[in-house]
Amino acid sequence: MSGVTVRKIESAADRHRALEVIEQVFRREKNWISAVHEQMPEGVENDSRVSWFLAEVNGRPAGIIRLLYDPPLELPEGYGVSFEPGVDLEKLRTAGRYAEIGRFMILGEYRRNPRVALRLMRSATAEVVERDYTHFITDVFEGEANSPFNFHTRVLGFEVVGKHLFGDLNCSSTRIILTLDILKLYRRVKNSRSRIYMELTEGIRTVMERKAAMRGRRTVSGA
């Protein structure tokens, strides 16, 4: 399982491969949806408001992740939202620029390979930093089998900010709302020798170093 690759979905062929993952995980395994194509409409690969990434293992589709830029932080009233004590929605809104992680799924046969999830997150993080976003926001299901909750909170440092009872997927579990300050994560683990953190932060480091170099060249030119 060493051949893990991730690329941004920018073609109809890659969209088709991603739909295979959605079909297997969200429709057949979880039964959370009834229509697969609605999850990733035709032409979405050209939509600047969203980014999808496809992970493959030795050339076979293994997982996907979706990024939605500038999502509304106010959820519909019917979702039954409650925030943690001390969490203020206005402070969340002004903390930075948010990208929502959604439709993060990995085929069952590849879930024991942590590199699939890590490389999807690495690509997603590099993308949002490149686009000058500073925070992630996401939902995970409480008590759901194969939930990424522990990965998000213990490994990445996501913080619980609230919950909501209902959403757009056919699942009765409570949704836990999590946020992550990306630069805070980077500062915390950038010097770690852990393979997990080295794998995760490689993409962030590359983008930040390139941006720093560009700022330096602009400063010299302006002088």
UniProtKB/TrEMBL annotation:
Domain N-acetyltransferase, first and last residues per copy: 4-181
**Regions crossing the membrane:** none
Keywords per UniProt: Transferase
| Name this polypeptide is given | GNAT family N-acetyltransferase
GO molecular function term, any single one: acyltransferase activity, transferring groups other than amino-acyl groups
